[in-house]
Amino acid sequence: MWKKIAVMTFSVMMVLTLFSGVTAEIAAPTVDYSVYNTAEADWVLIAAALHDEAGFFDDPDYQEAIALHDYFVSIGIDEEHIITLIDFDLANPIVDGPATKGDIYAALDFLATVTTPNSFVFVGILDLGHENEQGYYVELNDEPLYDHELDAKLDMLQYEDLVVDLVFRHAAGFFDYISEDGRLCFGSTKDNKDLDVPFHISIGLQDMEADQEFGNGNGRIAFEEAYKYEKDRLRDIDDSFKPKKDDEISGKVYAPGV
Ligand SMILES: [Ca+2]
Ligand SMILES: [Ca+2]
Ligand SMILES: [Ca+2]
Ligand SMILES: [Ca+2]
Q1: Is residue 99 within 8 Å of residue 48, measured between CB atoms?
Q2: Residues with Cβ within 5 Å of ion ligand 3?
Q3: Are residues 205 and 220 in contact, defined by beta-carbon separation less than 8 angstroms?
Q4: How do residues 21-34 score in pLDDT, each as one tens digit?
Q5: I need a surface site. Which of 52, 104, 176, 244 has the fewest CB within 10 A?
Q6: How far is CA 106 from the centre of its chain?
Q7: In angstroms, what is the span from residue 165 Cα to ligand 2's centroid?
Q8: CA 129 from centroid of its chain's CA atoms
Q9: Which span out of 16-25, 52-61, 218-227 was modeled with the highest average pLDDT?
Q10: Ligand 1 centroid, distance to 167 Cα (angstroms)
């Protein structure tokens, strides 16, 4: 009995400690979503947290974030439906805000209000990944975002297809939480791999070889085809580069307009 009460008290204290700690660490969001055009159902969120200010233009995460943005623009998605959060490049007109936890949460809270059951939603997160006793997480400049926290935010969205693209060490560790019906998830590397893999799905999405060599040859590049292409490209660079996929969507997923 006393042991039970002691354990319960301890648990409550742990929860309070966790909450107060987390709350204090989240920076206030900076993006004003009231000006966004919400006419279309489809949405893209790209968040890249960068850690080396001096060399950030050479950072593969930065380059992939920009390439993903440019890809979605090229297939006709409205700039206002592409939320691009990138640290250190806030003067760039395509960047909407920094990739803080506060801004990622605000973006997903906003998407929860504008997505519909017909929405295509793409969420890409590029950062440094880690694991500890609380789970897998991305650093986000000292505002850790955990696997279960990301899942809780994704659970608030409405969509027909949700593509989640995670580019950081241990990325597939997030799959235990985020794998769900209607979601197609990519992880740059396995859960147990502390390995920075330059998994760039944007490359296959823009090379018809993905459809012809790795797909069904129907003239349209699906995300699954781009993944196979990218997996093969990475294996040619380094045998230990092994991205992971979790596909809970029957058939192939095409971005809108593809
Ligand atoms: Ca934008
Ligand atoms: Ca969930
Ligand atoms: Ca195809
Ligand atoms: Ca599929």
Answers
A1: yes
A2: 211, 215-216, 218, 220, 222
A3: no
A4: 445 468 888 898 88
A5: 52
A6: 14
A7: 16
A8: 12
A9: 218-227
A10: 20
Q: How close is the Cα of 204 to the center of ligand 2, in Å?
A: 28
Region 237-254: mean pLDDT is 96
Considering every ligand atom, which ligand is closest to the CA of 224? 4
Distance (angstroms) between ligand 1 centre and the Cα of 129 equals 25
| C-alpha to C-alpha distance for 138 and 20, rounded to whole angstroms | 19
Tell me how far the alpha carbon of residue 109 lies from the centroid of ligand 1, in angstroms: 16
Q: Which of 99, 188, 187, 179 is nearest to 139 (CA)?
A: 99
* pLDDT, tens digit, 9 for 90 and up, residues 31-61: 988 878 788 899 999 999 987 666 788 888 9
Residue 246 CA: which ligand is closest? 4
Q: Is 84 helix (H, G, I), strand (E, B) or coil?
A: strand
Ligand nearest to the CA of 213: 3
Domains of the chain: 42-247 (3.40.50.1460)
Q: What is the pLDDT of residue 50?
A: 85
pTM of the model: 0.89
DSSP annotation of 155 reads: T
Q: What average pLDDT does range 92-113 have in this prediction? A: 96
Q: Cα of 210 to ligand 4 centre, how many Å?
A: 15
Of the listed ranges 36-40, 71-75, 98-102, 198-202, the least confidently predicted one is: 36-40
Tokens of 13: 């204290």
Q: How far apart are the CA of 92 and the centre of ligand 4, in A?
A: 34
Q: d(Cα 106, Cα 112) in Å, to the nearest integer?
A: 10
